[in-house]
Specification:
Layout: E1 2-5, E2 8-13, E3 19-20, H1 23-37, H2 50-59, H3 77-84, H4 86-92, E4 93-96, H5 103-106, H6 141-148, E5 161-164, H7 174-182, H8 191-197, H9 203-213, H10 220-225, H11 244-250, H12 252-261, H13 267-270, H14 275-282, H15 294-313, H16 324-348, H17 364-380, E6 385-390, H18 393-400, H19 410-420, E7 425-430, H20 437-446, H21 461-471
């Protein structure tokens, strides 16, 4: 019950039926109420929350798990901004499929019509394993390895959920959303930067390719956006808007150069890709018509085209008196010879260099799945007193505690807790990675033996040596920072 006076709450009744008049207590109860009202549930994942239901009803978002975002002419500016940026939210959502959802509900790419209504559980064997014969020929190797580390769905698990893929616990946050929009995702290695860094070209060419990647060339299109000029038409051909792709590839004054440098069989993709795909693919594949290294040829050609463009803009010269194709080829030859001379000089002067080795840890899901597989194997083969050593402190903490429903490893941890409730004695122990050499040796030996669980009577030589060292108490040294 609430007593109001001039739109101000003067008293509230607590659960015991007593009236509360103290202002500090009323303020605290109001804060707690709104904290419970606006909890961590978001519009997509917590659709049954009170404020989510209010937003869905007010803006007609529908009752599906993924809301239908639309706005009308009289919508507020805030809601229009939410609808305009909702595509970033869609990019960050992914399905957790512990149940047996349909492929058409969770697919992120077009699928054949004959399996459009199929369920993920239809690709699981009666024993609960992935039925690789039905789909392994449809996906690349790296996707098969990732699927092999995912627990197959089953009818007995909880319902499928939407998670936020840019966070470690599956929960949405403004910080991770902003990082995904600007390309600052933690743990995601920037392969494009690595490819640019390893180009055998001068540093000014590397810097130029990096500017192209971020679309930072000061073309007429960009100058119009900054109110520096009134027209974005290319001054060299007078036939199109001068953006980065037009200057580097699509201008008629430039297109002929690329047709000499690129094999005709690659022209369709080369002249139709967007800027990001164009740069990324040309630094990965060989499209060149010459015997020169294509990545260096492509980078130097882009830099040369931009230089000739600037010379034309500033009236220095138009580059017509030289042959662009042979000029680019000669510059590539000069770069190769200069880098070859640098390498030969470096070989004469051998110096000790301290380098920091970067180690990328495996996903936590893989470690949790290995624990689950080990527990299932031990139970099936009749072991009732088991000690499991875990070198991942994160996985060890997850198994010992509890996780939220949105966490990517929640279903795996629940399965492990279900096994622990059986009539047996299981003890988890955390050990350092240096003391887990036997497991590392077994993993290396099993890498080429397939994806299924297999048993061996006689371990390979590498595993046998690690077992013998472990029995004798030998181990690897561990560096400790004091």
């Amino acid at each position: 019950m609430v007593r109001r006076k001039r739109n101000k709450i003067e008293a509230l009744v607590n659960n015991a039926g007593e009236w509360i008049y103290d202002n500090d207590t009323l303020e605290k109860k109001s804060i707690d109420y709104f904290h419970d009202l606006y909890n961590d549930d978001d519009v997509s994942g917590g659709k049954d929350a009170l404020w989510a239901r209010v937003l869905r009803g007010k803006y007609h978002c529908g009752d599906d798990l993924i809301p239908q975002m639309k706005c009308s002419s009289n919508s507020s500016r805030l809601w229009k901004a939410v609808v305009r940026n909702w595509n970033h939210v869609n990019d960050g959502m992914e399905w957790r499929v512990p149940d047996c959802n349909r492929l058409c509900d969770i697919a992120t790419a077009p699928i054949p019509s004959d399996i459009f209504s199929a369920k993920v559980s239809e690709y699981v064997t009666p024993s609960g394993e992935w039925n690789w014969n039905q789909f392994q020929f449809l996906i690349p190797d790296h996707a098969r390895l990732k699927i092999a580390a995912i627990l197959p769905p089953s009818d007995g698990n909880e319902q499928d959920k939407l998670d936020w893929k840019f966070s470690k616990d599956g929960g949405f946050s403004v910080k991770t959303a902003y990082q995904s929009i600007v390309g600052m995702n933690e743990g995601v290695e920037d392969n494009f930067f690595r490819r640019v860094w390893h180009l055998k070209v001068p540093q000014r060419v590397k810097s130029f390719i990096w500017l192209c990647r971020h679309n930072k060339l000061l073309t007429n299109f960009e100058r119009v956006k900054r109110c520096m000029i009134d027209s974005s038409i290319c001054t060299r051909c007078n036939s199109g808007s001068e953006d980065s792709l037009h200057v580097l590839r699509d201008c008629p004054r430039v297109k002929g150069i690329w047709m000499h440098l690129v094999k005709p069989c690659h022209w369709h993709f080369f002249f139709s890709a967007d800027l990001h795909s164009w740069l990324k693919t040309n630094l990965q594949k060989n499209f060149g018509s010459t015997d020169l290294e294509w990545t260096a040829t492509f980078a130097i050609a882009c830099w040369s085209v931009w230089r000739w463009h600037n010379e034309h803009v500033f009236g220095m010269n138009d580059g017509i008196h030289t042959d662009p194709f042979f000029t680019i080829v000669q510059r590539v030859h000069n770069c190769n010879s200069n880098f070859g001379a640098m390498l030969s000089n470096a070989k004469r002067k051998l110096e000790r260099v301290n380098k920091s080795i970067k180690w990328l840890p495996v996903e936590v899901e893989y470690g949790i799945l290995l624990l689950l597989s080990g527990l299932c194997t031990a139970w099936i083969h009749g072991f009732r007193r088991v000690i499991i050593e875990v070198d991942s402190l994160v996985a060890y903490g997850m198994v010992q505690g509890s996780l939220s429903d949105s966490h990517p490893c929640a279903s795996l941890v629940w399965r492990i807790h279900g096994l622990l409730e059986k009539d047996w004695d299981v003890c988890f122990q955390h050990i350092y990675r240096e003391g887990n050499t036997v497991t590392d040796a077994m993993s290396r030996a099993a890498y080429q033996s397939g994806k299924d669980l297999s048993f061996v009577d006689n371990p390979p030589s590498g595993v046998a040596a690690a077992l013998e060292a472990d029995l004798r108490g030998f181990g690897s040294s561990r560096a400790v920072v004091v």
